[in-house]
Every structure is written in C-alpha cells, then in structure tokens.
TrEMBL record:
This is Uncharacterized protein. Residues 33-60 are annotated as: Disordered. Keywords: Membrane, Transmembrane, Transmembrane helix. The keyword Membrane applies. Residues 39-60 have a biased composition (Basic and acidic residues). The keyword Transmembrane helix applies. It comes from Sphingobium jiangsuense. The chain crosses the membrane at residues 6-26.
Length: 60
C-alpha cells in the first residue's frame, strides 16, 4: 500500500507540476500581448470624439 502511494506521488507530481507551469506560461503570454486598459480607453475616447466632430461637420 505504501509503495503504491509513493509511485503515484513520484509519477503524478512532475506531471502536475508540468501542467501548472504550462498553464502559467500560456496565461502570462496572453496577458502580455494585451495593451493596458488605460491606453485602450484613451484610444476609444479619442476615436469617438473624432467621429463626433466628423458627424457635426458633415451634418451642417
């Protein structure tokens, strides 16, 4: 019984560790490629202001 538990720990431990590391690497990679929210919000705000100005100039 005791040997079976150690076999599971020795085989399962490195597999579990590898899965956790893979998950962390993939999660970090996707978050690193995303721009910060303040940059995105500022760009969206500027685009909306530009579109509003274009609408006002075209509608007059």
């Amino acid at each position: 019984m005791r040997g079976e538990i150690w076999s599971i720990v020795i085989i399962g431990g490195p597999i579990l560790l590898a899965l956790v590391l893979l998950y962390a690497l993939l999660r970090n990679r996707t978050q690193r490629n995303q721009p910060p929210m303040d940059v995105t919000e500022r760009g969206t705000r500027e685009l909306r202001e530009q579109l509003d100005r274009d609408d006002k100039q075209g509608g007059s």
